[in-house]
Structures are given as C-alpha cells and as structure tokens.
Amino acid sequence: MEETAFVNQWDSWMEMGSVACVILAVLILLYHEFRVMQIRDYKEKYDYVNLNEVRFFWYAVLAVVVAFGFYANSIYTYKIVEHRSILWFYVRLFITISFVVIGYFVFYSMVRIYYPRYVEKRLVKLRNKPRLSPSGNQMRKLSEEEEDAHLDAQQIAEEASGIHSIDYDVWIDEKTGHKKIEKYESYLHAEQCPECGFFTFKITKEEIEVKPTQTESGLLLKHYQCDYCSHREARETRLSALAKNVA
Fold first, then answer.
1. Dihedral angle at the C-alpha atoms of 130, 133, 139, 144, nearest 10 degrees?
2. Angle at CA 205, nearest 5°, toward 200 and 207?
3. How far apart are CA 85 and CA 165, in angstroms?
4. CA 151, CA 242: separation in Å to the nearest integer?
5. Residue 168 three-state SS
6. Is the pTM of this model over 0.90?
7. What are the domain boundaries of the chain?
8. What is the spatial distance between Cα 212 and Cα 73, in angstroms, rounded to a whole number?
9. What are the two backbone dihedrals, phi and then psi, of residue 48, each rounded to the nearest 5 degrees?
C-alpha cells in the first residue's frame, strides 16, 4: 500500500512538473519577444537578437525536453501497481532519463545547426528595415559607393582592412540631412558551410600574409571551420593600400 501511494503521488508530481516546464518554455519565448519589442532602435534590436535569440530558443526547447521526461515518468503507472513491484518504477525512471539525455544532445545539435538560418533571415530584415529620423521622415540606406563620403578616415580604414569584417551602414534623411551610421561586426556571424550547407561556418583565425604599404595592397588569410562537419577552409582577402585609408 505504501508503494502504491508513493507511485500515485509521484505521478502527480511528474504531471505538475511537466505542465510547469511547458509553461516555462512558453514564458521564455514570450520574454524574449517582449524584450525585442521593447527595443525601438533597429540596430539595438539587431544586436540583441544576434546575441540572445538562439540561446533563449534553446532554453525553451530544453524546457520542453524536460517536460517530456516528467510526463513519461507518469505513464503506465497501472502496470507498476498491477505487478506490485517497485522494480518497474526504477526501470521506467531509467528509460525516461536515458531518453531525456538523448533528446538533449539531439535537439541541441538541431538548434545549433538549423535555427541560425532563421535568425540570419531575421537579422537581414532588421538591418534593412527603413529607419526614421528624429523628424519622423523615412531615411534612405546609402549604397557602398555613396556611404564613403559620410564615413571618417578611421571607419573607411576599418571597412577596407578586411580584418574582423567590419561593415558600416549609412542612413540619411534626404529632407533634413540627418545621418545615422551603424557598425556591424560581420565576423561574428556564421556563414553557410560549402560542405554540409548548414549555417555553422565561422572564422576561427585571421592572419596577415602580406602587410599593406602606402603604395601596395596587402593580403589577409581568414581561416574558417564548420561547427557541424568540421570542414576547414582558408580564404584570402585583399587589403587596401594604406594610402587609400587616409582622408
């Protein structure tokens, strides 16, 4: 009788834990989206999504995996009661823990491999979303050819250097002349791996092979590695001559 009472009480705890974890997963996603909605500036929104979206999504997925573990520990209880053997209780516990551990690694890999593709699409939309000037006018994003006239010598040098893949977007209000410059560190983003096709291809190291001079360009070697298939690749980037980086 005591074992039966314990097993029934255990079922109640597992069911409550399962519901609590599902609610927690929903709250995590809602909290993240609420934080995104609170940020008005698109560049700040971009930075927040870039740094946090995959992490919060993984926390929500993990909560669902744990919820499954709790729920699985509450099924087929009648079998345990029928056999009147606590051994089946521990067998069920062992099996569900095993599945939770397997699920952890499977879903962790899936989130790490597939979800960045969605995040990149969202980041592109945020980066190109029309900005509004303080006057309320819609601003225009300048082309690469146009923006150099609005960047200082240091910013032009950062873009031209190719080191760490710094990129600038320049937005201008053509009615008032108001200008907004946004800095993006593209090297922090994963690219699509040419081998496996997943967005898990990242820069691991950069080294200057040929230093630029006042009259000649240089050469930068970027080393990439895929977090999924471990494909490695080195790509050369031409560095502008120093004379071109001075206003």
1. -100
2. 145
3. 64
4. 16
5. strand
6. no
7. 2-128, 190-247
8. 65
9. -65, -45
Buried b (16+ CB within 10 A) or exposed e, 82-111: eeeeeebbeebeeebeeebeebeeeeeeeb
Q: What is the pLDDT of residue 246?
A: 44
Q: Parallel, antiparallel, or unpaired for β 179-185 and 166-172?
A: antiparallel
CA angle 35–39–44, rounded 5-degree value: 110
Q: Which two tokens stand for residue 169?
A: 């977007």
Centre a 10 Å sphere on the Cβ of residue 232 and count the other Cβ atoms it contains. 12
**Residue type for 207, please?**
E
> In 10 A of CB 145, how many CB atoms?
7
DSSP alpha helix (H) spans, the chain: 2-38, 42-72, 77-83, 86-128, 144-147, 153-161
Which element (helix H / strand E) includes 170? strand 166-172
Q: What is the pLDDT of residue 107?
A: 92
Residue matched to tokens 């940020």: 39
Amino acid at 110: M
What is the block-wise mean pLDDT of the chain (247 residues), using blocks of 10 residues? 70 91 97 96 93 94 95 77 71 89 91 86 92 93 83 72 73 92 78 83 79 75 85 80 50
Rounded distance between C-alpha atoms, residue 9 and residue 34, angstroms: 37
Give the contacts of 212 (CB within 8 A, at least 6 positions apart).
218, 239, 240, 241, 242
The answer to whether residues 234 and 204 touch, using CB atoms and an 8 Å cutoff, is: no
User: What is the phi/psi pair of residue 157, to 5°?
Assistant: -65, -40
